[in-house]
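During the reporting period the student researcher (J.K.) took over the structure-prediction task from the postdoctoral fellow and processed the backlog of single-chain submissions. One of the processed entries is reproduced below for the supervisory committee.
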Amino acid sequence: MRVLYFTRDYTPHDHRFLSALASSGHEIYFLRLERREASDGEPGLPTGVEAISWRGGRAPARLSDGPALLFDLKRVVKRIHPDVVHAGPIQTSAFLTAAAGIHPLVAMSWGSDLLFDAERGAGWKWITRYTLQHTTVLVGDCMAVQEKAVKFGFPSERVVLFPWGVDLSRFKPGADGGWRARLGWEDRFVILSLRNWEPLYGVDIVVRAFGLAAHQNPDLRLILLGSGSQEKTLRGILQEAGVMERVHIGGRLTQEQLPEVYRAADLYVSASHSDGSSVSLLEALASGLPVLVSDIPGNREWITGEDDSPGWLFPDGDAEALARGLLRAADERPRLTAMKRAARCLAEARADWPSNFNKLLLAYLMAREIDARR
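J.K. obtained the following C-alpha cells:
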C-alpha cells in the first residue's frame, strides 16, 4: 500500500507513527505542512520514509498560503498516486486534503483539534464540519473525540479509535538514573509536570497549586519540565509564592531521558483543559507512577478516581482543589504502592503501542474498501 502521511509539523509523535509505518512493509511518503520551530535536535525521518519536497514545510503556514498549497498538494498527489492519504490535524492538513478533493482520506484527530479548536468560532466549526464531510475514515484516540465527531454529523461506524499508546519496554518501573540524588530530594515527595507551557495545558494551575500546597507541606518538591509562552508567568507565580527553591525547572527532555524522570517522581500531575488520551499520562502509567489529573473527558477514560484507580481527578481549572489533591497524595504514601501496580497493569492492558498501532492499518484498509464502493 502506498501511504501519504500529511501532518502539520514534525513532532516526536509523528516520528513514532512514521517509524511504525516504515516497518509495516508499506510504501510511506511524508508531507509536512509547516515548520514552526527550529530544527536543531529534530530527529531525522525513519529509514524507508520518503520526504516530499513541495511549497509547504519550510516556515509557519499562513492563511494567504492556502491557494498555493492547495494547488501544489494536488500536484504531489497526482505524482505519487497514494492508495490512502493520512492527514491531520483536522483543521489544517486534513482540511487541505479535503478541500483538494483527495480520497480516500483517513483524517487523524490529535485530540484538541476536535475537543477544543472546533469550538473556537464559526469559521473553525465550518472548517471542521467540511473536513469531516469529506473524510472517509476518522482516527481518534478516545471516546470523547468520537462523540464530538458524531455531533458534527460524522458516522460513528467510520471512526477507528485507539489510544496512541507507549513503548512498554522503555517506559516501565525502575531506577531513576540518579535524578533524586542529584537534586538532593531522596526523602521528599516529588511531583512531576511536563506539559507544554501554553494556556491550553494549565501549567499555571499546577504551579499555583504547588505554591499553596508547599506552604502546608515542606516536603513537597516539583520537577517542572517544558517550554512555551507562559514561562515568565510561571516563574512569576513561583517567585511570588516563595517556593522557587523547591522547584527544579528544566527544558524539554529527549525521548531517551524521559523514562528516568518518570521514575524519579512520586506523582504525575496534569491540569490540561483539553486532552484526548494524553501520551504523557500513558507514559506515567506505564512507568508505574500514580497520577493526579484534571477532570476532563479524555482523562476520565483512564482515571476514574475510584479505589482501584491508579490516580485521582480534580475539577478542571481549580488550583485550590489541585493543592488539596497534592497534599492528599503526599499524606497517603502507603496507598501509592498499590496505585503504582494498578498504573502499570492499566498501561499493559490498554496502552501497548505495537498492539494499538495495528488499528491504524485497519483504518487504511477500511478507507480503501469504503472508497471502492463509492
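The committee noted the following: The chain has two domains: 2-165+353-373, 179-350.
J.K. will present the remaining backlog at the next meeting.
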